[in-house]
Amino acid sequence: MSGTEKSKAHIEQAKGNAKEAMGRMAGNERMTAEGRADQAKGNARHAKEDIKDTFRH
Q: In terms of pLDDT, which residue wins out, 56 or 29?
């Protein structure tokens, strides 16, 4: 997996996790939903890189 793409995926997942937690603490449903969306983006990026690695080897 590309190092930069891997780090981007982890950053998106962490950012989403933090945003979701802050949204829950504040009672802000929109922020919670945005956090979940950021986590999903990170997961999708990670899955894409895993698939690329599978076909590369």
A: 29
pTM: 0.81
Please list, in sequence order, all residues whose beta carbon lies within 8 angstroms of the beta carbon of residue 21, skipping any fewer than 6 positions away.
Answer: 35
d(CA 40, CA 33): 11
DSSP calls for the chain: --HHHHHHHHHHHHHHHHHHHHHHHHT-HHHHHHHHHHHHHHHHHHHHHHHHHHHH-
In Å, how far are 13, 26, 28, 42 from 9, measured between CA atoms? 6, 26, 25, 4
Residues written for the chain: 57
